[in-house]
Amino acid sequence: MKKTFINGAxxxxxxxxxxxxxxxxxxxxxxSINKNKGWNLYSGFTDAGGNTIIKLGQPKCDQTTSAGVVTxxxxxxxxxxxxxxxxLNYLKSTPKNFENSAEALKYExxxxxxxxxxxxxxxxxxxxxxxxxxxxxxTFVIPTAGLTGVSKISLARIESEVKAIMNNKGTxxxxxxxxxxxxxxxSESITEEKGQKWMHIKSFPQINHAVSFFQVDGEGYPxxxxxxxxxxFNGNLEKDKKLHLVFEYNNTIQILDVTKQDGSKDxxxxxxxxxxxxxxxxxxxxxxxxxxIYIDGNSLEIKFKESIKLPYxxxxxxxxxxxxxxxxxxxxxxxxKNDYLEMxxxxxxxxxxKIFKNIVNDPKNSPNLLVLKINNxxxxxxxxxxxxxxxxVTHIIGGSNKKSSGIPVFNYPSTAENSxxxxxxxxxxxxxxxxxxxxxxxYQALIEGSTSKPPTLGDMxxxxxxxxxxxxxxxxxxxxxxxxxEEYFNANNSKMYWLTYDYVTLNKETMPCVYEAKKVPNMIAxxxxxxxxxxxxxxxxxxxxxxxxxxxxxxxxxxxxxxENEIIFQGKSTSxxxxxxxxxxxxxxx
Length: 590
Fold this sequence. Notes:
Blueprint: E1 2-12, E2 19-29, E3 40-46, E4 52-66, E5 69-84, E6 90-98, H1 101-104, E7 118-119, E8 139-146, E9 149-166, E10 173-189, E11 196-205, E12 210-218, E13 226-233, E14 239-247, E15 251-259, E16 265-273, E17 289-295, E18 302-309, E19 319-322, E20 328-334, H2 354-357, E21 368-374, E22 379-385, H3 387-392, E23 394-396, E24 417-419, E25 423-426, E26 430-435, E27 438-446, E28 457-466, E29 471-477, E30 483-489, E31 495-502, E32 507-511, E33 514-517, E34 525-534, E35 539-540, E36 544-545, E37 551-554, E38 559-562, E39 566-573, E40 582-589
Parallel strand pairs: 7-10, 23-29
Antiparallel strand pairs: 1-2, 2-40, 3-4, 4-5, 5-6, 8-9, 9-10, 11-12, 12-13, 13-14, 15-16, 16-17, 17-18, 19-20, 20-21, 21-22, 24-25, 25-33, 26-27, 27-28, 28-29, 30-31, 31-34, 32-33, 34-35, 34-36, 34-37, 37-39, 38-39, 39-40
């Protein structure tokens, strides 16, 4: 059965120029090929002939029940590739079968686009977040926790664990599922010598090695000074390289990794002064003093060290970006005054603890954005972006029925995702792009919040910076509820197609940022809102909502194809007259 809901064009008024986007919508009854029950929508693609391929999939459990005991052996996966022609007419179905999840992951992200692996080792207190299907089966070198904190370095492999899904009474299995886990294979102590105190600050897990940063004190280290160690462990958990840093002034250090264009990593340390709890005899420098140390990630040798004066104190460095010409930009919120960092009082001062842990987003105390540019082994520029600077270049995109605060926010939220067929939990995230001489940040503004207080959600934001980190333009789509976004670029990167997604209209919110299906059975549905941003002139079209009362877009895998000429969405019918088995395809011509 084929049914066309909409086959026409809508007018999209652009601030730069009038543009016309043609939206074509067609549906296909999955029941006609017996793929309506138990089959879930996954991703898709466009083949060499211009046909659109939709992936349907379902897990197949291998389990037995004997004397009330459920034994689950594994999960196989069945997929069907549905082929539609250029006019979105159905052509054929092709089966794809996989014996286990490891094989299926080579084909589709069956464990989720991103996920956090849980731990099965008692002493494995650290997990690796933001994994993807590419990480499955790989072995990482990571720090893990003993009973007294992070005190070991471990080899851990990303594996999976199969669990039975029981009925509501817990008396019979109704299926099974597979979950990523972090299986710790072996561990070694990271403590160096007796009489020393090693406090773990931060680690950078990698496949072949790991680099960990510690604050150290005790025998063998200069007394009355601030001592830090950057230690590298190889794939055999051997300590192969070490950098000892000694500071003559009381400080707090932040360390960030820099992923270079070839995929290798360097490290940048930002040392800021503190006048609190200074060991006797240590110098107290001005509150706006900072020292930048850039370290080669392979040799752990210092490439350069430079003292700088910050515009204000309390710079919370959060992100590094490598520009297309190889320079390194360090982004982070900064205060609007000069006062000293407060550090926790203890025998061994812990950097990145008290003063950093509550900074999820704090526009009140850290409203500005500082960008430091490192180039040719020196600090090339320091750029301060104030809220007033951003207000001058902020544009509220029209076409929304919501109101914007109109206030630009520089924020640094964390990212996590945990989703299934009935709910989606996703903390607001950000993505960064380097396009030509521009740096583009995409995120939803967090008005306030901390690790103990849920944030107030704000506008969807695209912030465009030049290659020094100076704000050029900030676009806001009015929002006050949880939302999400995707972005696509044309062939020459002159236009960005910015899609923001409304979760509230078609779903039931059970708790903040947690939704259950409402309009579409067994599918979290969303409404895309499309704006076209001209990156050459920094202008944007008004929003066009890709919506209808008769269908909703799949929130997990909304876009199945993005080509030079079109974006194709997938979803299900919401019409009471239509069957639950109606697959809907929506094509937007660029």
